[in-house]
Amino acid sequence: MVEIKKHVNKKDFGEAIEIAGVFLDQRSSSIYCGMVIYYKGKSFFRQGNYESAASAFMDSYEKNKQGAKAPKALFLLAECFDKLNKQDKRKIILKKIVQNYEGHRYAKKAAKALASSE
Q1: pLDDT confidence of residue 44
Q2: Burial degree of 15 (CB within 10 A; 0-12, 13-18, 19+)
Q3: What residue spans of 33-104 are helical by DSSP H?
Q4: Cα 101 to Cα 66: distance, rounded to the nearest angstrom
Q5: For a tag on the chain, would you pick the N or C end, based on fewer CB atoms within 10 A?
Q6: Cβ neighbours of residue 60 under 8 Å, at least 6 residues apart?
Q7: Least confident of 27-31, 56-60, 69-73, 85-89
Q8: Which are the contacts of 68, defined by CB distance < 8 A and separation ≥ 6?
Q9: Radius of gyration, alpha carbons of the chain
């Protein structure tokens, strides 16, 4: 997982996506799958591939709803929906963040995003 994060930080997104795919193929039951999928989504997002990023962020969240990256994965999912002009889905996700992660910094960001969109 460290290797994937390193490639994301170096903006070598293609390599990060490839390494993530290999990891997930070989270790599909690892406790790190949610985190690996998150970084895969982040790579897609930075490439402007918002459909693939949205799918990855949702998968990351589903793998580990209580994980450290869960609120951020949902927030980035909402950002993907914004880029894809799917405002209804964006609002649903932002509301979910506010409801499920009260007090978290991404809940605050989600509440602010909701307020500015109304």
Answers
A1: 97
A2: middle
A3: 33-47, 50-63, 70-83, 87-100
A4: 9
A5: C
A6: 34, 35, 37, 38, 41, 69, 70, 73
A7: 27-31
A8: 35
A9: 14
Structure tokens at 90: 């964006």
98 three-state secondary structure? helix
Contact call for residues 74 and 44 (beta carbons, < 8 A)? no
- Residues 6 or more apart whose CB falls under 8 angstroms from that of 96 comprise 74
Does the pLDDT value for residue 1 go beyond 80?
no
- Which of 13, 74, 1 is CA-nearest to residue 47? 13
DSSP state of 30: -
Is 35 in contact with 69 (CB distance < 8 Å)?
yes
Checking if the pLDDT of 62 tops 90, the result is yes
What pLDDT does residue 28 have? 87
